[in-house]
Queue: 2 jobs
Job 1
Amino acid sequence: MPRILVTNDDGVHSPGLAALVAAMKPLGDVTVVAPATEMSAVSHALTITRPLRLERVRDGVFAVDGTPTDCVTLAYVKVLDAPPDLVVSGINLGYNLSVDITYSGTVAGAMEGTIFGVPSIAFSLCRTKVYDFTQATWAARVVAQRVLDTGLPLRTLLNVNIPQERVRGFRVTIAAGRTYRPEVLEGIDPRGRTYFWIKEGQSDVDPGPRSDYHAVREGFVSVTPLRPDLTHHAEVESALALALPETLADSIQLV
Ligand code: MN
């Protein structure tokens, strides 16, 4: 039986986590290590300035008062007897498309598994008022089974986004380009002090035909391969064109 580690960023009590557990149960031996409370948009944060507590919620389910990255770390080092065969993260309540990938705690949980050398997948579902996980559970099981059967290349994870309407199939995609205009609400708290609350801003999306945005809009499950390496390999040449001084002596003459 493959060992499957499940985490998320919406917290150990999220219905999306329960759906992912249900999706994985027929595929292997499932252990859950998830944040005790919601940790959405914490990205790849690792808690190093305070101790962490691991609480056993019930058999095979643990809560950590930290981030998804903390959860995968504690699971790997302290909870599991042996490294997992698969790490899955989600199912997030809301898409993680385009540059949202960089904010996502859901994606980071899978990213951490990848950094530990374990095939890993992040799952996110279209945001709605009332969630129906039937399709998402099925889609997660299909993708996870394929990954368990064939593996993933080293240092590669999958970012999977599932539409809410009737799914037409699966598409391998690239993350859409997006420029973001941030928005911040301002108000006065009960003690008369000004507060700020960051809200979802306006986006200019470039929903190219191969993009994740386009796939989910067309009713397909979007599967984007990601890697922890953020190097923009195609732009190494343009960085070289900056002609940065190679030595301190050269740099003194520049400025
Ligand atoms: Mn979330």
Job 2
Amino acid sequence: MAEQLNDFIKNESKGLGLVTAVSPANIAFIKYWGKSDKQQQWPANSSLSMTLSKSVTKTSFAMNNTGFDQFIFNNQLLTSKDQRDHKVFRHLQFLRDAMTSSGMEISQKFFTIKSENTFPMGCGIASSASGFAALTTGFLAACTDSYQMEQLELAGFNRTTIAKLALRGSGSAGRSISGGYIEWVKSTSPECQSIEPFMAAKEWDLSDIIIIASDKEKAVSSTDAHQYAWGSPLFSMRLSQIDEKLKFAKEALETRDLQKLGLLLEQEALEMHAVALTGSTPVQYFNQKTIEIISWIRAERLKGNLNAWFTLDAGPNIHLICKASESKNIVKKIQLDWPQQMIIEDRVGTGTQVYKYGEIYD
Ligand code: DP6
């Protein structure tokens, strides 16, 4: 492990330290839940999300000459030689094949890849979204010697193209490439699905205050739960109404109507969890603390003390959506009533960036 890290640093000093991609997580307002085609990552429905700015994955690439990829995450080293079937290496293979079939010669480039999150993983802060967004963007940038998103676009990969490749690693990752409010449009076939910016971050400055109810990794992955959803008696009802709900959510965004959006957010999160709870293998992602905090949010709002609405991803943590201008005061209020809870104060952001390795931010 230490040796691989040394190699990483040595390569960097020889100019082979290539690129770092920084990708944010995103929080879905209308959830992607269920897949119509697992192989091609075609979702059961269209979804809509807000790209975050503070909860990010940073993934750096340095070339190596071992003939294999190496992936360092959480002080663990994986190699494509021993773990070919790991989802990271399967995705890298998919990207290599995609680039090769579009005429680029990259089959002999292998990388040592180091990745880290600024937030706890696997507990409902979309670590797979930021993780696969950074892995995809970083790999494309490293293969094309691009040190900025603009260069990557000149090399043939604009954000829309990158998003479509990233979603093959993890569906929600496709929505972490561009910033602001993003729609993943299901369309009529897997090939025609697309990921499109709906509204820029600067159009509406919303915050996502993430209240950590548990930082333990979830027992059932969303990938498995997407399959179980088809067994829920509630799922067909959900799918029959989802386009209408998506339309309302987009209207609420366009008119900056937080109350309308907020009511939808809560219904949508609870509906997704109801489907998970009643699937072919029932999955419960929330815990006692989640319920206590949700009840508190609703009670405080009724009393006129809180202008914020919650949503949940596939995990127990609460994402409290509010105007960014009110976020500081809301955080103070939470800290007062829930002093034990860890809080991440995040807000809408501008999407994935790439940097020359070593040239970043803190
Ligand atoms: C609850 O994107 O993690 O966060 O495509 O199998 O990797 P895979 O699933 P994933 O599912 C995310 C589900 C969700 C809702 C959402 O982000 O829309």
